[in-house]
Structures are given as structure tokens and as C-alpha cells.
Write a structure and sequence with these properties.
Elements (H helix, E strand, L loop, with lengths): L13 H4 L2 E3 L8 E2 H6 L1 H14 L8 H26 L1 E2 L8 E4 L5 E6 L4 E2 L5 H24 L3 H23 L3 H11 L18 E6 L2 E6 L34
Parallel strand pairs: 1-5
Antiparallel strand pairs: 2-4, 3-6, 4-5, 7-8
Helix pairs in contact: 3-4, 4-5, 4-6, 6-7
Length: 254
């Protein structure tokens, strides 16, 4: 594990910290993210591998691509977001500066960088996150849309749910540190960025309710459905805004 991440990724989170590696050279089988974005045939092959793994048949690859993106994002975001918000350190996350390894099912397993980037204490949220959002995820999501015709709001919703999970974990670990709370607000609760551009991560998390052990419990639903329910043998997750029990008018809190 990268030494600066070790104190942040212990116990159940240790595996997430191992998903980012730094060495002078990328592994020979790792794929530069910029190539992943630019090489349509390569991305198509990876999505086809993952579709086979998910037992998807036919030409509609939206659900498989969304599942692929969730694997990619959960491999990428924990270390990058923890560093950016908790440590205020920006790893080199531009598409030209990272490579990614995949398993036999086309799922991301580890990201690779060749240097540690920059410490940026006291800088704005946008300065620390723009290379990740504008120069890595945005072009990748555009490439996925070109392959599958999937709405980009679904992909940004996938990113938002994992980004929020890491930030909330950071808030718990630090006793609600103000600089992490500020990033949480800027990234997830503001419709526009600091420069006035549209924030694609912003979205309303509708409140609903669930019954657990006979007790009605309030829940916050995901901003977007990830289409997981369309995969063979799968159903709605417990926080899906499209699940029948959470649709408007379905019950208390809807």
C-alpha cells in the first residue's frame, strides 16, 4: 500500500487502499486509461467480457456497462478520494497519468501511477478534484455512452454513490472534519461548481422508508438507478429509486 494511505485504510477498508499502486513503471499488462478511452475496440472487448460474466445476452449492454463502471469506480475512488479530501493530496489521476489492470472478466482490479502527485493543503475542492472528474471520468463516461447509449447521468450517479461512501467514511474517522464536510457539500450538494460549470455529481437523494424487523426505518435512496436489476438473476437493491416499494406514492416517506 502507498505509505500515506496506510493509516486511512485499515481493517475492512484495507483492500480498497491496495487498489492504487505507485511504481516507476506500469505493469506490462496494465492499460493506460487514455488508451481505454480512445480505443473503441478495446473498450468494446472489455464490456463484452463483462457482459459474458454477467450472463447478459443480446445487444443491450447498458446494464453490463453500468456494472462494469461500478467495479471500475470502486477500484479507483477510495484511495483517490481519501487522499484528495482527508489528506488534501492530489494523486496524478488524469487519463494520461494512470493505467489500470483488469481480470479475466473485464473488471478493474488495480490502478497504477508513476509518481505520487502533489500535496495541496488549503486548495479548493475543484482544484483537487478536476483532473479526476473532467480529465478522467468525463471522457471515460462519454466513451461508455458511445458504446452502449447509456445515459451519462447513470454513470455519474454511480460515481456519486461511491464518492459519497468514501467521504462519509472519512467524516466518521475524523470526527466530522470541516474540510471533508466542505468537499462533501461542494461535490454532492451543489448544482454548480466553483467556476460556474454544471456539477454532474449533483442529484437529489429522495427519502423513502423501509420495514426492518417490523420497524419502519427512513432511508435515502440512490440518486440514479444503476440498472443492476436488469442483469440476469438480479433484482433491485435496497436503495434503488425504481424499486416498486420506493416509487412515488408507494408508501410512507415517498
Amino acid at each position: 500500500m502507498i505509505p500515506m494511505l496506510a493509516p486511512l485504510f485499515t481493517g475492512d477498508w484495507a483492500e480498497e487502499g491496495e487498489a492504487l499502486a505507485c511504481a516507476d513503471a506500469w505493469p506490462v499488462d496494465a492499460i493506460p486509461v487514455s488508451r481505454l478511452i480512445d480505443d473503441a475496440a478495446l473498450l468494446q472487448d472489455l464490456l463484452a467480457q463483462h457482459a459474458r460474466y454477467r450472463r447478459v445476452t443480446g445487444t443491450d449492454l447498458r446494464a453490463a456497462a453500468s456494472a462494469w463502471s461500478l467495479s471500475y469506480l470502486w477500484t479507483l475512488l477510495p484511495a483517490v478520494v481519501a487522499a484528495a479530501s482527508i489528506l488534501q493530496h492530489r494523486f496524478p489521476v488524469h487519463a494520461d497519468d494512470m493505467a489500470v489492470s483488469f481480470d479475466k472478466d473485464g473488471a478493474a482490479t488495480r490502478f497504477h501511477i508513476r509518481h505520487l502527485g502533489d500535496a495541496l493543503p488549503g486548495t479548493s475542492t475543484q482544484e483537487r478534484y478536476e483532473p479526476l472528474l473532467a480529465d478522467h471520468l468525463d471522457p471515460l463516461f462519454a466513451a461508455l455512452r458511445a458504446q452502449t447509449r447509456m445515459a451519462r447521468k447513470i454513470l455519474w450517479g454511480n460515481a456519486a454513490r461511491y464518492l459519497e461512501s468514501v467521504l462519509e467514511h472519512g467524516l466518521q474517522r475524523t470526527g466530522g472534519a470541516a474540510h471533508i464536510a466542505a468537499d462533501h457539500h461542494a461535490l454532492l450538494q451543489c448544482a454548480v461548481n466553483e467556476d460556474g460549470s454544471t456539477n454532474p455529481l449533483h442529484g437529489v437523494r429522495r427519502r423513502s422508508s423501509a420495514v426492518q424487523g417490523g420497524v419502519v426505518t427512513p432511508v435515502r435512496l440512490h440518486r440514479q438507478c444503476c440498472l443492476y436489476y436488469l442483469l440476469p438473476g438480479e433484482g433491485y437493491c435496497g436503495l434503488c429509486p425504481l424499486a416498486p416499494e420506493h416509487r412515488r406514492g408507494a408508501g410512507p416517506g415517498s
